[in-house]
């Protein structure tokens, strides 16, 4: 069987080119780090595509490697509107053939309404301005475009019941959000399942999880916490995440039962206006 190639994001291509140029210059990561004034660990992150250098660092990399501004110029095309830990994930979402997502406490970003997203952003920005929230909502709206097409990616959405109960943005916003999720499921755009409270402990109750598969490359898994995230492509780790997702899914309600629960929760929020 032909071995599947690993999908490389633009960041990973940037890092791979840096590694090749560093090797050609006969520098170790530690030696390059000394010239860039950063740790060899950070150089490793650059070369793996997990982090991007700051513009000043890119200029120092060019000087150290004799690349005449190559990495500084390329960096301008890679600057992302997303946080460092999520930028590569946002790129991969655009390429995925299938996305399986589990949400522990909030509706996944690609399914969020503007009102729901705005309430979330405002909750953890104590000194926000309306303009800042507008910009963040626009960015999230752009992510939702991956669902505009009728076919790919195939999306599975597994929600803990807590997602349905925690009122984000008030009763009207919450009702609108849940009805949107249910409408997408009924239209066939996503497969929806809910893990009810009655299940008790389940395999994913410690973290949100996103699994992505691709037509011609290896799958990845992504978990996220406060101000941090971990994108995994190591086969053993991805396999463990896939197993945990399958276990949790086996405890979930059927799609029809899940739809009924989501609709009922939406109506409960609406009645509290």
UniProtKB/TrEMBL annotation:
Gene3D superfamilies from the UniProt entry: lambda repressor-like DNA-binding domains
Protein name, UniProt field: Transcriptional regulator
GO MF term set: DNA binding
One Pfam family in the UniProt entry: DUF5753
Limits of the HTH cro/C1-type domain: 18-70
SMART domains assigned to the protein according to its UniProt record, in alphabetical order: HTH_XRE
Organism domain of life: Bacteria
PROSITE patterns the UniProt entry points to: HTH_CROC1 (PS50943)
Organism in which the protein naturally occurs: Streptomyces qaidamensis
Stretch forming the signal peptide: none
InterPro entries recorded: Cro/C1-type_HTH, DUF5753, Lambda_DNA-bd_dom_sf
């Amino acid at each position: 069987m032909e071995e599947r190639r690993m999908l490389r994001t633009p960041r990973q291509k940037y890092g791979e080119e840096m590694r090749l140029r560093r090797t050609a210059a006969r520098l170790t990561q530690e030696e390059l780090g000394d010239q860039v004034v950063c740790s060899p660990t950070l150089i490793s992150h650059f070369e793996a595509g997990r982090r991007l250098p700051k513009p000043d660092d890119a200029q120092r990399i060019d000087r150290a490697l004799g690349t005449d501004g190559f990495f500084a110029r390329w960096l301008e095309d890679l600057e992302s509107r997303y946080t460092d830990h999520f930028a590569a994930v946002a790129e991969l979402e655009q390429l995925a053939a299938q996305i399986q997502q589990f949400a522990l406490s909030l509706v996944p970003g690609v399914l969020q309404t503007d009102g729901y997203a705005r309430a979330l952003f405002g909750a953890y920005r104590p000194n926000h301005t309306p303009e800042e929230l507008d910009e963040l909502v626009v960015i999230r709206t752009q992510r939702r475009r991956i669902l505009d097409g009728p076919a790919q990616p195939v999306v599975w959405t597994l929600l803990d019941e807590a997602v349905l109960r925690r009122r984000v943005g008030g009763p009207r916003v919450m009702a609108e959000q849940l009805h949107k999720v249910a409408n997408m499921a009924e239209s066939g755009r996503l497969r929806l399942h809910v893990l009810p409270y009655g299940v008790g402990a389940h395999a994913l109750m410690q973290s949100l999880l996103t699994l992505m598969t691709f037509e011609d490359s290896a799958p990845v898994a992504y978990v996220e916490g406060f101000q941090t995230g971990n994108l995994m492509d190591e086969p053993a780790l991805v396999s463990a995440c896939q197993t945990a997702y399958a276990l949790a899914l086996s405890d979930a309600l059927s799609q029809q039962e899940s739809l009924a629960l989501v609709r009922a929760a939406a109506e409960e929020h609406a009645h509290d206006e």
